[in-house]
Design goal:
Length: 251
């Protein structure tokens, strides 16, 4: 059984006060629940305080990116060990904003994934096609290339620390959400790929989140799809009034 995994990607939003208010409410709401796994991904500068505010809570804290190098002269970068040092346990890699705005290619995403797993961070690897690619019938090809590229060389034993997020680029921050059928089709495809790349066991255990305009009003029908194991939530993770009902999708 795959525990639903609901994660909030704050991107470059919120200030210290708003971040701490939000996690205070989140902490109280989640309590000691184990029916869902919850994680938040603050901007780097707030990870430390957010992690302290969540100490002892099952809500986990992660980073939105990390450096592919261990340490040294990489101005502006943040290393895996530094992230762990301030309380991050997970890192989101290959987000479409990193791929499309900052030009991150699969090779770099892969180096980051290997560095993160070696250094003790869990990974959420994002994959997804643009609207043009979908219209051109390239969805499977894009997802396959990003998945294979991102996970190249990752050991089967580390796959229990990897989550895949299917995030169609056309659905991110647009208010246009994939239909349950569209999400289900790609999620099943990803699961099949994982089976071929690793094993059926890995394919059955790895969680595949959907991301792209998830809200309280659409999360239930997405989560009803067999291969959808959670959500990576951007805009709707910034306010408790929007995020908490998403965590309660099954109630
Ligand atoms: C995201 O940033 O990963 C995302 C899915 O954003 P949104 O929920 O705002 O579409």
């Amino acid at each position: 059984m795959r525990t639903p995994y609901l994660a909030g990607n704050w991107k470059m939003n919120l200030d210290r006060r708003a971040a701490l208010d939000l996690v205070g409410t989140l902490r109280e709401h989640v309590g000691t629940r184990t029916d869902v796994e919850v994680a938040v991904f603050p901007p780097f500068v707030y990870i430390d305080e957010v992690a302290r505010a969540l100490a002892g809570s099952p809500v986990r804290v992660g980073a939105q990116n990390c450096c592919d190098e261990e340490k040294g002269a990489f101005t502006g970068e943040v290393s895996v060990s530094q992230l762990r040092d301030v309380g991050a346990e997970i890192v989101v890699l290959g987000h479409s904003e990193r791929r499309h705005i900052y030009g991150e290619a699969d090779e770099l995403v892969n180096r980051k994934a290997q560095r993160a797993l070696d250094g003790g961070l869990d990974v959420i690897l994002c994959v997804g096609e643009t609207l043009e690619e979908r219209k051109g019938g390239l969805t499977e090809k894009v997802v396959r290339t990003q998945l294979q590229g991102g996970l190249a060389g990752v050991a089967t034993r580390d796959m229990d620390r990897v989550t895949i997020a299917y995030e169609p680029v056309w659905a991110i921050g647009t208010g246009v959400v994939a239909t349950p059928a569209q999400a289900g089709e790609v999620h099943a495809y990803v699961r099949g790929l994982l089976s071929g790349l690793f094993s059926t066991d890995v394919a059955q255990t790895v969680r595949i989140q959907y991301g792209g305009s998830v809200k309280a009003s659409n999360v239930k029908e997405l989560m009803a799809v067999g291969d959808v194991d959670g959500a990576l939530v951007g805009g709707a993770s910034l306010k408790a009034d929007d995020f908490l009902p998403i965590l309660d999708f099954a109630r």
